[in-house]
Write a structure and sequence with these properties.
Layout: E1 3-4, H1 6-10, E2 25-26, H2 39-45, E3 64-68, H3 74-82, E4 87-91, H4 95-105, E5 111-114, E6 117-119, E7 123-132, E8 135-137, H5 155-162, E9 168-179, E10 189-192, H6 198-204, H7 206-212, E11 215-218
Parallel strand pairs: 1-9, 3-4, 3-10, 4-5, 6-9, 10-11
Antiparallel strand pairs: 2-8, 7-8, 7-9
């Protein structure tokens, strides 16, 4: 697929594609610090963005929740809607999604969003995000660009189910990654949604998991990087 630069994204005409109303879809041209993103509607409704977050309503107290792959802050709002006293530490390495999630975190007094990702080793790597009609499809951001090529695990879903005939390009940026165990955290809950890098995250948190025995909710991706 063709790659698109940040400068080219900023020159795209206003988006008309239907996906602009989805949570996690980012318009990089939004100069209002992303206050038009659908996550703000979720915040006003005080409801989880996915129903399985209701499972955490049985937890009481102010434990530490790790939100690994925060995207635009949907999980922050979801956790807070069912466990208001939770202390949340979020991790979002991409530039545009972080700017939204960090702004969402300011609504709460006990949420911290870090602009780096967790992995099995510290370093810097490129991450790839599909673009449709100038919109960043950030929930699908991946360390593996092959996922979006013909034969890749996301190709059909992206080009047919989501794009529905619209051209798809790829935006790449370099992100920071850190080994989770190096942070020496004691979480009660871990939520992991990192589009194929789940094994890397779990490996980097092996000691933390052994010591704290947190409740873990993780996405099961077809491709594991």
């Amino acid at each position: 697929m063709k790659f698109v630069t940040r400068e080219e994204l900023m020159k795209c005409p206003p988006a008309q594609h239907y996906v602009k109303a989805w949570s996690g879809i980012v318009d990089p041209k939004d100069s209002t610090l992303q206050t038009s993103n659908p996550v703000w509607e979720q915040l006003s409704q005080k409801q989880p963005h996915e129903p399985h977050f209701h499972l955490f309503s049985a937890l009481k107290g102010a434990g530490l929740f790790l939100d690994i792959g925060a995207n635009c802050g949907q999980s922050i709002v979801s956790f807070k809607s069912v466990v208001p006293d939770a202390h949340i530490m979020s991790f979002e390495p991409t530039t545009f999604s972080f700017s939204i999630a960090e702004r969402v975190s300011r609504v709460f007094s006990d949420v911290l969003v870090n602009n780096f990702g967790l992995s099995d080793d510290a370093g810097r790597l490129p991450i790839y995000t599909p673009v449709i009609d100038g919109l960043l499809i950030t929930p699908l951001s991946s360390l593996d660009p092959g996922m979006f090529e013909p034969g890749g695990t996301m190709y059909t879903f992206l080009t047919k189910d989501i794009a529905q005939g619209s051209p798809v390009t790829i935006f790449s940026e370099e992100i920071e990654l850190r080994r989770g165990d190096d942070l020496k955290l004691k979480p009660e809950v871990m939520k992991i949604d990192v589009e194929g890098a789940e094994l890397r995250v779990l490996t980097g948190l092996a000691r933390t998991i052994k010591q704290s025995k947190p409740l873990i909710m993780t996405e099961k991706s077809d491709a594991v990087a």
